[in-house]
Amino acid sequence: MSEQLQIAIIGGGIGGLTAALAPRARGLNVTVFEQAGALREIGAGVSIHPNAALLLQRIGLIDGIKKIGSAIAGLLLRTSLGELINTSALTSTGVQGYNVHRAEFLKLLIDAQPEGTLHFNHRLSAAKETNSHVQLTFSNSEAVDTDIVIGADGIHSTLQRELGLKTYPSSEGIMAYRGLIPTGQLSWAKNIDGAMSMWIGKGRSFLCYPVSGGRLMNMVAFVPTNLNAEESWMTPGDLNALGAEYAGWDDPVLETICALDQTFRWGIYDRAPLPYWSTGRMTLLGDAAHPMVPHLGQGAAQAIEDGFTLAVLLQGATRKDVPRQLKAYEKLRIERTSRIQAVAREAGRFYRAEYENASERDRLMGKWMSAAGWIRGHDAEQTAEEALLLARNDEAIKASGDL
Ligand SMILES: Cc1cc2nc3c(=O)[nH]c(=O)nc-3n(C[C@H](O)[C@H](O)[C@H](O)COP(=O)(O)OP(=O)(O)OC[C@H]3O[C@@H](n4cnc5c(N)ncnc54)[C@H](O)[C@@H]3O)c2cc1C
Fold it and tell me: How many CB atoms lie within 10 A of CB 368?
């Protein structure tokens, strides 16, 4: 009789919630433990590029995303003074990407969880692994035994520490002001049809894209800061200070800043790639494994890819197989996510640089934009299925040689 493995996911963010849905779609038994008492999201946008949209489509979420999202129609890249540098189609893979409001997307993911499988008010405090299982302890004093633990508990991951890893956040020297504006208030946004708009140069960049079915414009303004800037998602920001950062920039930038009622400051951090993600029956996913600076909009997409990879590798696994399958997951994912972490830093440097020579700028742009192809054209589920097949073939060959 096949054993029904119990999977516990720590963290009910975008990574944890999609990592619960993907294995469930393959018949696995998953429970999510989230520290917060309820969905608590401040307004901000997040991109679901084609590499993530493709996967979410397969578990039936794309109709819901279409309702709340804004289809990404491309990127309009301009200098700080408004000269158009490049227009690129971000959907060259044939799969449509979407920009969504984080709170609306999280609600969609929460609503898709079967009743009784998502436990709020459960903050992991410790995880103790034995040969046969893992014992989880929560700060509400509950204890849970499980077969597999997936730490999707974000950049300050508790599970990462329990795996014996000691890493520190690394500041990009940049912080972002974020805000949302009703799109109808912005004269420049009348005819953009879902395109993302970005202004670059002078040590800063300014990004706008529509969310909430196009009703709201999400603004993210990246500016230099000292390295001790607070690492936070929701510290209130000063609108006058934001305005001063972009004095003299293109009119739509100034119009957008003037239209804001409030703004939040966000310190931009990542962490160096980890030497390992898994020990025995415990592993990491999403920002807990590979936090990245946001210049490629791949934070959520990479977490989603992780979850689908795990789902493929754990389907049909027995208790004995678990450590090997988690190592296979780590091996499949660590190289790709480490590369994307590095390219995201490079993209940020490109955006903020001021080029005297347009051909040098265009050469560098071509270099990192070509990365968009291998990043957004990836099918994580298919890659995992192919790797699993290869591993099974190798085992069969080895077994026949042993006869
Ligand atoms: C508020 C917020 C705003 C963001 N904005 C942007 C953005 O504008 N652009 C962008 O590119 N990326 C943004 N990100 C990052 C992006 O969303 C992530 O890269 C991506 O969604 C993957 O996240 P994750 O699920 O791995 O981690 P997170 O989204 O950080 O989720 C981790 C979850 O784990 C929970 N948790 C933490 N510790 C514990 C514990 N000990 N026990 C139980 N639960 C725990 C947290 O409460 C949280 O719900 C944002 C993240 C957050 C949290």
Answer: 18
CA-CA-CA-CA dihedral for 357, 358, 359, 363, to nearest 10: 110
C-beta of residue 63 within 8 angstroms of C-beta of residue 87: no
Two structure tokens written together for 34: 């989230």
Q: Please compute Rg for the chain using Cα positions.
A: 22
Contact by Cβ (8 Å): 17, 59: no
- How far is the CA of 266 from the CAs of 75, 113, 173, 243, in angstroms? 23, 29, 12, 16
Cα–Cα nearest to 284, from 127, 133, 150 = 150
- Residue 33's SS3 state is strand
> 202: CA distance to ligand 1 center in Å?
30
Neighbours of 45 (CB within 10 A): 27
Residue tagged 């006869």 (tokens):
403
pLDDT of residue 160 exceeding 70, the answer is yes
Confidence of residue 233 (pLDDT cuts 50, 70, 90): low
What pTM, to 2 d.p., does this model score?
A: 0.94
For residue 395, what pLDDT band results from cuts at 50, 70 and 90? confident
Of the listed ranges 44-48, 92-96, 128-132, the one predicted with least confidence = 92-96
Cα(first)–Cα(last) distance of the chain, in Å? 26
For ligand 1, whether the C-beta of 159 sits within 6 Å is no
How many other CB atoms are found less than 10 A from the CB of residue 140? Answer: 11
Q: Is residue 12 lining ligand 1, measured as CB closer than 6 Å?
A: yes
Answer yes or no: is the C-beta of 267 below 6 A from any ligand 1 atom: no
Rounded Cα–Cα distance for residues 242 and 258 (Å): 10
| C-alpha dist (Å) from residue 4 to 24, 29, 129, 398 | 12, 7, 19, 28
Distance 116 CA to ligand 1 centre (A): 22
Q: How far apart are CA 117 and CA 140, in angstroms?
A: 17
Determine the Cα–Cα distance for residues 402 and 306; give it in Å rounded to an integer.
34
> Phi then psi for 124, rounded to 5 degrees?
-65, 130
Let me know if 197 is exposed, middle or buried by CB neighbors in 10 A (0-12, 13-18, 19+).
buried
- Residue 21 CB-density burial (10 A; 0-12 exposed, 13-18 middle, 19+ buried): buried
Q: What is the band of 229 on the pLDDT scale with cuts at 50, 70, 90? A: low
